[in-house]
User: Fold this.
Amino acid sequence: VLFKGASYAARNEAYDETLALPGLSSAGQSEYVFAKMTGRPAIAGSTTLTFAATGESATVEVNDYATIFAQ
Assistant:
């Protein structure tokens, strides 16, 4: 969900944009919030995405400088 607000819990639901990805599950960091002016994340982390149909997975890492790496 793409949201507007300081966090998902405190978001303004009128601005929610949802993208359905059936068969995709995630593990790890579940929320990334980027600063409006700098684009830097509030917290760095990694999320592993797994496709149920094939069992393939990929890890996405976000560092403190908003650089996103996919493995």
Notes: The chain has a mean pLDDT of 92. The radius of gyration is 13 Å. The first strand starts at residue 24 and ends at 28. DSSP finds no helices and four strands in the chain.
